[in-house]
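Hello,

I think I submitted the threonylcarbamoyladenylate job twice by accident. Can you confirm which output corresponds to this input? Input:
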Amino acid sequence: MTSHPDPAEIERAAAILRAGGLVAFPTETVYGLGADAANAAAVANIFAAKGRPQNHPLIVHLSDVAQLPLWAADIPEAAQQLAAAFWPGPLTLVLKRAAGVPDCVTGGQGSVGLRIPGHPVALALLRAFAGAAGGRSYSGVAAPSANKFGRISPTTAEHVRAEFGAALDWVLDGGECEVGIESTIIDLSRGRAVLLRPGQITPAQVAAVLGAEVGAADAAAPRAPGALDSHYAPRTPLFLVPAAELQARLSALRAKKLAVLARAEAPEGLHQVHWQEAPRAVAPYAHELYASLRRLDALGCDAILVEAPPPVPEWQGVNDRLNRASSD
Ligand code: TXA
Ligand code: MG
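Support: Only one job matched these inputs. Its output is below.
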């Protein structure tokens, strides 16, 4: 199965979710590690498999905006506007939780993260699961990225299998994730819109839909622990280096075994350096980023040097992930 859902596989995966199992599935951002969001034991297994602290809230994935009022209370007009503009798609909305929302997915907070993903396999799975759940109201799939806590998110089914082996009940293979970095998270639980995690959808795009500025996270913002430093990290020390300083850093580290990820061709006469050329434009750069970091990490180098992309708004999501991956 690539980006087109195979009905028999979808049915099987939905049945596993219904029975309380764990299913990894593709979304347009990264692969998710899914469980029935209303089944506390199943959700606990996500935390155990990932090695993730229990109080971290999870994003609940839905297939239809009609499900929104089951999960969220006091839904502001802004949420409807953003849902209409960007769902299905790489945007997560943090809203006030509805009364019956299970604590296991909110980390005990007063808010809940919700998203309708755009990948056809994810949507088919979510629809099959909601259908199979019959009249049961809380038919959402809780899914963090399908990686061990603190490590690089997976953008292929192979990445998921390599990291979890037999610990998962099923991995749906939907090919490479198009976007390549996790969804933009916007908090709407406290009045004005606040950016909790940058992604492909920029604050400017969100502001254009709302006709209002998007704020930066402040101390009172809901905890988004996935936005911790030292996340998305390879095992090899990674250093983010301004383009103009790359040559000097390479010379200074001459004695070391190095890998480089840069939006430029390898200079002439470079030895002992594994140079990987990255796409110049942000969309293909983000699409390849995590696979590239995994590949470079596997080389067993002393360090990975990443040429810093431009510090401009379109690159905010990518720059955020590179900063968290860096050892500086
Ligand atoms: O693209 C994505 O969002 C992927 C795919 C699988 O949908 N999922 C993902 O999940 O990145 P995860 O768990 O790796 O990151 C979710 C982030 C975490 O930083 C979490 O703390 C935050 O969302 N989050 C979830 N619910 C929240 C809430 N109620 N309040 C604040 N932050 C929340
Ligand atoms: Mg994650």
